[in-house]
């Protein structure tokens, strides 16, 4: 299974010494929730970030169908992702996809907050994990999501297709990653892991 291969070969860039380090993706736990409340939230609120009022524990109780994962390095939560499946593809009608409900990274890893983030590649690694999940489900890596304005460029760099405003979802743009582009993302990730070993 691709997901197992991904979990064994996760790399993020430690910016301080420009070196790739091994990270882990784990199911979201109470420890992660507490860390987000105590370490992330004050800085997110201070910088007026889009997710400053995010109540993850509320998500967990109100939307039990969501699967949440945390990316950790050195036992510290560096990013989180939440998704559900199956969702309908708009780009490839009649096909299923994994729908990303949330993707966010720790404030110390955001270039819009810090000129020198501690780690890079958190968001891409989490997206690649979701792609691997989609492949293992038989959805060929397809992913869909609604994006906050600030994140659209990030998703477009990963070759998500912007399908325009969705009036039924806060007028956010709806983006999808096709099965072809998903395959390339996973291959690039595995290549990076092999080169940095």
Please provide a written account of the structure.
The structure is a single chain. The chain has a single domain, classed as Aminopeptidase (3-Layer(aba) Sandwich). The protein has helices spanning 2-8, 30-46, 56-62, 122-136, 152-157, 179-195; strands at 11-14, 19-22, 24-27, 67-73, 76-88, 96-105, 119-120, 143-147, 161-165, 173-177. The longest helix is centred in the first third of the chain and has 17 residues, at 30-46. The protein contains 6 helices and 10 strands; from the N terminus they run H-E-E-E-H-H-E-E-E-E-H-E-H-E-E-H. The strands form 2 sheets. A 7-stranded mixed β-sheet has the order 3-4-5-6-8-10-9, with helices on both faces. The protein has a 3-stranded antiparallel β-sheet with strand order 2-1-7, sandwiched between helices. With 197 residues, the chain is of the alpha+beta class. Helix 1 (2-8) packs antiparallel against helix 4 (122-136) and helix 4 (122-136) packs across helix 6. The mean pLDDT is 89.
